[in-house]
Each structure stands twice: as structure tokens, then as C-alpha cells.
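Case study.
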Amino acid sequence: MTGQNARRVTVVPNGPVLVEGPVELVTEDGVTHTSDRFVVAVCACRRSKRYPFCDTSHRKRVRTDG
Ligand code: FES
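After joint prediction, the assembly is written out as follows.
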């Protein structure tokens, strides 16, 4: 698969890895996770409560009360 048929994978700095879907993702425990989304955000920080998928937990929390 090359050129126009190549699947695009985009690494977001300090964020997830975006993969063109649909995907089947196998984690280190052998479990297969599937997603039919057009673009799938794969967690690269391990903080996601929906791991292996990103839930935006990688974002730094910014206090707005001060
Ligand atoms: S990369 Fe977004 S929660 Fe881990």
C-alpha cells in the first residue's frame, strides 16, 4: 500500500496518534479493540480511561479561577 492508497498515521505532539479508520488495534494483553470511526485517536500517553483510545486526558488542566 503506497501513494494514494497508503493509510495515513499522524503523530500529534503531546497527544494521540491519529489513524485513518476503521481499525483493529491489538494491545499488549492480546485484546483486540475495534473502531469504525473515520479517524481513530490512539492514546500515546497511557492516561486515557478509554485506553487504547484517547479521551483527551493528555491535555494539561488549566485553572481558570485564578
Ligand atoms: S493521548 Fe489523549 S489521553 Fe492519552
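Observations recorded in class. Residues 15-16, 43-45, 47-48, 54-58 surround FE2/S2 (inorganic) cluster (CB under 6 Å). The two ends are 52 Å apart (CA to CA). We will return to this complex in the next lecture.
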